[in-house]
Amino acid sequence: MIIVMKPNAKKESIQNIIEIIEGKGLTAHISNGKEVTIIGVVGDKSKLQDQNLEIADDVDKIVPVTESYKLANKKFHPEPSVIKVGNTSIGGDEFIIMSGPCAVESREQLLETARAIKKAGAQILRGGAYKPRTSPYAFQGLEEEGLKFMKEAREETGLAVVCEVTSLAAIEAAVKYVDMLQIGARNMQNFYLLKEAGKTGLPVLLKRGLSATIDEWLNASEYIIAEGNPNVVLCERGIRTFETATRNTLDISAVPVIKEKSHLPIIVDPSHATGVRKYVKPLAKCAVAVGADGLMIEAHPNPAIALSDGPQSLTFPQLNELCSELRPLAELMGKKF
Amino acid sequence: MIIVMKPNAKKESIQNIIEIIEGKGLTAHISNGKEVTIIGVVGDKSKLQDQNLEIADDVDKIVPVTESYKLANKKFHPEPSVIKVGNTSIGGDEFIIMSGPCAVESREQLLETARAIKKAGAQILRGGAYKPRTSPYAFQGLEEEGLKFMKEAREETGLAVVCEVTSLAAIEAAVKYVDMLQIGARNMQNFYLLKEAGKTGLPVLLKRGLSATIDEWLNASEYIIAEGNPNVVLCERGIRTFETATRNTLDISAVPVIKEKSHLPIIVDPSHATGVRKYVKPLAKCAVAVGADGLMIEAHPNPAIALSDGPQSLTFPQLNELCSELRPLAELMGKKF
Amino acid sequence: MIIVMKPNAKKESIQNIIEIIEGKGLTAHISNGKEVTIIGVVGDKSKLQDQNLEIADDVDKIVPVTESYKLANKKFHPEPSVIKVGNTSIGGDEFIIMSGPCAVESREQLLETARAIKKAGAQILRGGAYKPRTSPYAFQGLEEEGLKFMKEAREETGLAVVCEVTSLAAIEAAVKYVDMLQIGARNMQNFYLLKEAGKTGLPVLLKRGLSATIDEWLNASEYIIAEGNPNVVLCERGIRTFETATRNTLDISAVPVIKEKSHLPIIVDPSHATGVRKYVKPLAKCAVAVGADGLMIEAHPNPAIALSDGPQSLTFPQLNELCSELRPLAELMGKKF
Amino acid sequence: MIIVMKPNAKKESIQNIIEIIEGKGLTAHISNGKEVTIIGVVGDKSKLQDQNLEIADDVDKIVPVTESYKLANKKFHPEPSVIKVGNTSIGGDEFIIMSGPCAVESREQLLETARAIKKAGAQILRGGAYKPRTSPYAFQGLEEEGLKFMKEAREETGLAVVCEVTSLAAIEAAVKYVDMLQIGARNMQNFYLLKEAGKTGLPVLLKRGLSATIDEWLNASEYIIAEGNPNVVLCERGIRTFETATRNTLDISAVPVIKEKSHLPIIVDPSHATGVRKYVKPLAKCAVAVGADGLMIEAHPNPAIALSDGPQSLTFPQLNELCSELRPLAELMGKKF
Predict the structure, then answer these.
(1) What is the DSSP letter of D101?
(2) Is there a contact between C40 and A38 if contact means CB atoms under 8 Å apart?
(3) B65 and D38: CB-CB below 8 Å?
(4) What is the pLDDT of residues D158-170, one digit of tens each?
(5) How far is the CA of A6 from the CAs of A14, A57, A61, A296, C2, in angstroms?
(6) Which chains does chain B touch, 3 or more C-beta pairs < 8 A?
(7) A109 interaction partners in chain B (CB closer than 8 Å)
(8) Residue A56 belongs to a domain with what CATH number?
(9) Which of A257, A307, C224, D53 is deepest in the core (most CB within 10 A)?
(10) Are both B191 and B315 inside the same structural domain?
(11) Cα–Cα distances in Å, from C27 out to C23, C30, C44, C48, D91?
């Protein structure tokens, strides 16, 4: 932590800062520059947490030098994490496809989809039983009934299953049926939900918030890990920008940035990132080539009548075709699929 | 709802769309332009909710012509709403100041603040008992104990009190102590929480999400109103943009836009919008002049040691000074204060 | 300038940085923290301009501590600048209204507008003779003929006149006819144009780029001032964000931020910021209350048939009404108008 | 073009719109919906260019149904364009690498680079002789002398050469020495420069503006093509968003979106998009996999002392390694390289 003083800061202002720092048992390191004085803090900066130095006299700005997340930080955990989900693992040698409908609509729809995605090569079935929708008048999900269908699909196919949770009640229901919990983009900073998901010990798929920086995203993962649950997988799904040609802007650079800053695995969701089916294939390929650990791809028996996100869902033949094109690419990147 | 076909769309593709529309008991209105054919849908478009026409053959795009929110929409409710909160009202003739600390830290801190803001002219006391913080290692709030202090402050001063809620448990506790619930920016699309807040019947202060469009914000308010609770007050608190000179970018245009699109009152929070104390005064003034119904201003007995958001909090003398400068401005705008 | 090393940086890496710094005749100030080593550079950091220290071994990041603009910086020029334009001045006691059509369309249109805005109280006539338009098929301006009409309007009314310039040829023409040059948002980082405008010595109205940070904007003004021309007036006109309810998002906080960082005057353009006529009045008021030095307001004899930006232009009666509502507000803010 | 009326629009308001449309020789197509009336315009909508219908009484909004760019539009030119540049072509079967230093610094630096990039497999040499820099105190380029070195490098190696132009003077110089002109991101809406570049007939590399939508970018290309010069190549180089982990956010979706909307080739510049050398390789790979026609990669004999953009430049061994990893990927995508 560095405190940059204003040009011509008064001696007393500098002395005041030094006293606050030393009063907390830390060391102040003074550097008198040509224009400004800089004060470095040596020691555990969390001791200064209740001191708002930026409003002290003659302070120009405070510059943090270390990240506020520790458990998710690669600096203190250099080996990449491999997260076990059902019979498969994310972050290891295998390239993972999660697929399934946006919303679980019926037993038949889900079982049919589970069989189709397994055939295409996917390892994990996704399906929403609790749907966060922009409008209260849109379909809101089958809730626990939907979870039961997911469990049945898992038992029949052996696929691992993941479902989004949106409340403590949903978490309490989901732990009985699924292998992995998903925290959606709109709840990425619902810290209460993050803690509750952490407490379950189940692996958590943490989607990036629409306007979350990568640092905020890793801080959100820290909430889960701090509950003693290191099983977090990140999912880049597009951020909000001024561009409207796609529903969101896929921030593909997030993949190498996360690989640089964190040991957690990261997958990419091109379906939600674009909202447009015809862009799913090229973006899925680019996610493999950039080094992602997997993909989340929406698929539906009949996208034209899907109750949620039909326009971005693939048909089963389209999913099959996509997977066969991804296979040689994944191999070229050194991944099994 | 308008369906724009691609240039040279096949006759069968157009016929297919017409059949889907008519199959739902609606009327299709065809307009053959020079370059493209446009199909207007006459009737209740919600009947087409389970039809994803954008992926039908030869469809270029779908253009909605009406908003998806109805209860919050000024078109169907032209009179401005006035929301009663404790002994005061928001959206009427009076200009409202909500003030108080970011976080309730102790009984003394809160009572001292309540007396000071009342003296300055504020009508509503704010204070956070459940704090959503970016890092899990930051202060998380006093929870129910904090709510008790709020109630005590209300009883002593007669101020109305508002507190942020972040979970169903927090709502269940808060209804026993406060006059108004606040849904914070990070939970604006926590639809589960919106519904639960709606069910309480208490007035709800709904902050705009960091990257929420005005349409999404009004749709979020619709979730609350649809539970039979029309007592929603909106709060603009800055949106996320590329600019970093302020913590967020105060979207001051949101005030006249909301006044145009909705009947709900709207207040402005310059403290969170900028994160910088010295910018609070000019932005508070501009909020009065633009026609806002009130302000939320953070104040603290000693901002230098506030446990949360100290750098943007006013001291009590600063709050006093601000209020006396706002008074003639509010009067010029036709508001009592 | 501070160099933050990675945790566990090798001794040789630290030594290497020190040698580069000392090799340029500067002093390296080492601070060994608990987790990381920080190296402060004491002396003229521009000597390190051709050294890309961020890619040296074990460097985590470089943190600048001083701004790259000097001439526009309030730190080195604390008194606010007052810029003379024709018979009036911007940045002093007077609140300035620049008004006129987006595009000069004809002699009659311009003269009629000049008379009307003068009557309403405006001091400066604006009008575009060279129009940057998104589509090449839209009206591109009358060029030098338009400038002649501006000069005629100036002579008849005594108003100062300002015109946007988009090329060296336009500058060479404009200097013969107008009192102030405008650099538009799309050319804010057309550094060639900035230098050429600087060389003329005429006052320059520098609009903020659609996605320019405040720092980049002040650096752009530095290009003009560095040519020996200190007569720069800034104009906030909205930035690009995800919100589409207004054409751009007026960053009203830019006014107090500029007042904090620079001595240059700043005006606000609510017409371009919103693109919607009905929002011009509330945003004009808010610009006065936030402390701006003036406003740019588009007005047209008949907005319904304006060749450019009609939807955001005021009629003359609307301009009159606006000015009479702004007057008491400006007085309350301590400005003459 | 569709005009959406407000609910309860008066008959006279609707009649007024119809008369304006018919007065221009166009046909108005009325559709009376349940809530609102919609008026479609049949015929050449450019005839309504001087009518600002959005401010007519009772008009809610205007919805365009066709794009304003025609020459760049795939709808009217379905075959992909292949643009010849020197001895090579962009947009055909070959995957193109443009490489070289950000700024031409000396004859030796440029010739050494030209030889190295040729050996690595690049087909086009880039180098800046006119540098747009945020600060006026940064290196501004060698100007015409730099162009001479580019020509010499072309003659020695046979590589095609491309150089950014920032003014008419720069264009007039560049046409004597280079095979392709580059319009940089900051000048993407410098419409004057676009027209002048168009007039030369040379191929133009048009970088996307930092905050330009894809529609604005294609409209900018239309300015060049409308001068009779169809030889435009687009370059995605990152857009400005709230994320700061990378200098800009690479909008990789722009590649499939451009392939859907336009016939122009598109390349990707991961160096400028991220500003960080270690992210260049993964993003280069992802650009190949997403279907781009080529890459622009900055390379320098000694990035540590590059006068511009050193931190994002590759060394020659790094460029070699990158190219050998790209080769099998390009082949998998059906491109020769």
Answers:
(1) -
(2) yes
(3) yes
(4) 999 999 999 999 9
(5) 10, 9, 8, 49, 16
(6) A, C, D
(7) none
(8) 3.30.70.1140
(9) C224
(10) yes
(11) 9, 10, 10, 12, 52
Angstroms from C220 CA to nearest CA on chain D = 7
Neighbours of B19 (CB within 10 A): 11
Dist. CA B221–CA B218, nearest whole Å: 5
- Give CA–CA dist D48/D59, Å, rounded: 15
Other beta carbons within 10 Å of A64? 11
Residues of A in contact with D249 (CB under 8 A): 239, 241, 249, 251, 253
> Would the CB atoms of B33 and D65 count as touching at under 8 Å?
yes
In a domain, B69, yes or no: no
C50 to D191: CB separation less than 8 angstroms, yes or no: no
Neighbours of chain A (3+ CB pairs under 8 A): B, C, D
Chain A residues touching C75 at Cβ < 8 A: 6-7
Q: Rounded to 5 degrees, what angle do the CA atoms D280, D281, D285 make? A: 115
Please state the rounded mean pLDDT for residues D24-44: 86
Chain B residues with beta carbon closer than 8 angstroms to that of C253:
245-246, 249-250, 273-274, 279, 283
**Helical segments of A122-279, H only:** 144-157, 168-174, 191-200, 214-225, 254-261, 270-274
Beta strands in chain C (DSSP E): 2-5, 27-32, 37-42, 59-63, 83-85, 88-90, 96-100, 124-126, 160-164, 180-183, 204-207, 232-236, 266-268, 294-298
B55 and B108 share a domain? no
Helix (H), strand (E) at residue D183: strand D180-183
Tokens of C227: 């040519």
- Judge if B175 and B300 occupy the same domain: yes
Least confident of C213-222, D65-74, D224-233: D65-74
The verdict on A16 and A100 lying in the same domain is no
Alpha-carbon distance B250 to nearest alpha carbon in chain D (angstroms): 15
Q: How far apart are CA B45 and CA D34, in angstroms?
A: 10
For residue A48, give its domain range: 2-63
Q: Structural domain tally of chain D?
A: 2
If asked whether residues B131 and B274 sit together in one domain, one would say yes
User: Is C46 or C152 the better-scoring residue by pLDDT?
Assistant: C152
| Residue of chain D nearest C62, judged by CA positions | D311
Hey, what's the torsion of the CAs at D124, D125, D131, D133, to 10 degrees? Answer: 80
Residue B103 tokens, joined? 């976080």
pLDDT at B299 over 80: yes
Cβ-contact B322, B117 below 8 angstroms: no
Q: How far is A51 from chain B (nearest CA, A)?
A: 5
Nearest neighbour of C33 by CB, restricted to A4, A40, A241: A40
Name the nearest CA neighbour of D206 among D176, D173, D230, D177: D230
Q: Residues of B with CB below 8 A from A304's CB?
A: 51-52, 55-56
Q: Which of C252, C254, C279 has the CB atom closest to B257's CB atom? A: C279
Q: Does the beta-carbon distance from A311 to B55 stay under 8 Å?
A: yes
Residues D328 and A182: their CA atoms lie apart, in Å, by 36
State the average pLDDT over residues C203-210.
Answer: 97
Question: Judging by DSSP bridges, how do beta strands C180-183 and C204-207 pair with one another?
Answer: parallel
pLDDT digits (tens, 9 = 90+) for B238-295: 999 999 999 999 999 999 999 999 999 999 999 999 999 999 999 999 999 999 999 9
Residue C123 Ramachandran class (φ > 0 left, ψ -120 to 50 alpha, else beta): alpha
Separation of alpha carbons A298 and A275, rounded Å: 10
Q: Given a cut of 80, is residue A49 above it in pLDDT?
A: no
